[in-house]
Known about the structure:
CATH class of the largest domain: Alpha Beta
CATH superfamily of the largest domain: Alpha/Beta hydrolase fold, catalytic domain
Largest sheet: 9 strands, mixed
Number of helices: 7
Number of domains: 2
Distance between the termini: 86 Å
Structural class: alpha+beta
Radius of gyration: 27 Å
CATH architecture of the largest domain: 3-Layer(aba) Sandwich
Amino acid sequence: MKTIYRSASFLLLLISTFGFIPSRVAAEKQKLRFNVTLSPSLSSSPVSGRLIVFMTRSSEPLQVIEPSLFDLEKVWVAAKEVQNLTPGKSIEFNPDDIASPAPLSSAQPGDYQVMALLDLNHSYSYSGMGEGDLRSEVNWARGLAPSESEPIQLTLTKRVEDEHPISDNKNTKLITFQSPSLTAFWGRAIVMRAGVLLPPSYATSKVRYPVIYRVHGFGGSYRSAWTSGAALYKKMADKQLPEMINVYLDGTCPMGHHEFADSVNNGPWGQALTREFIPYLERTFRMDAVPNGRFLTGHSSGGWSTLWLQ
């Protein structure tokens, strides 16, 4: 017992003399962490969104890291919500909180490539990187031991560009409209979009046309106005179909397809369409703004939209 007391006394003497005792735990490296910085070159004001970090052991040098549906374990993914990330400032990111296929710190040691992405409009889960999203370069983390590692530094330096930009032409118009009801629901600006395909005689006539509203299935978007719309326009020009204004609606949302249903999760999309967006379209174009002048069709998830909107 005397030996124990003497050791304890010596320990207290060290604390009082030097002010600290070297800690074996403090000296150890921690589980994998990321420090993500927003480059001032991308924004002059704070930004918010879904911060996603990707990590892969692929030996092929990559320009971009993206998960594969056919091999979900090839790319490790972690995510968190970020509010008001200030340019030039960093945020510490724990990749174990929300991760797939497992906490990133449980990955085996090895050479990894890593990348950070800030998904500004929360659309990555539906359509991948989108125009305006911010990302870092793909960096190598060689000899990484995720269970015992120094923090990895990543800087958001690139703004994602639209790989398939669309623009108005003589017959097809991109329409954007900020919805008051959806904006109030989310507390931030929510924009509704549509591709409007005008009939061949629209530019040379003064008549009003019936309208068919088209709702795409899961994976689609309003961009169909610029793809399948061309064949539809030709059929109208060849008199194989009656001339109508075709409106290709956009049912995409962060959770996939909102189906234009009024929802406590996604917001009052049905109300926004019928009470705000359609009246706006009818003021913008020569549409036959009566109930029997409006038609609705949809494919797959868009079919559910059609039933709901009845």
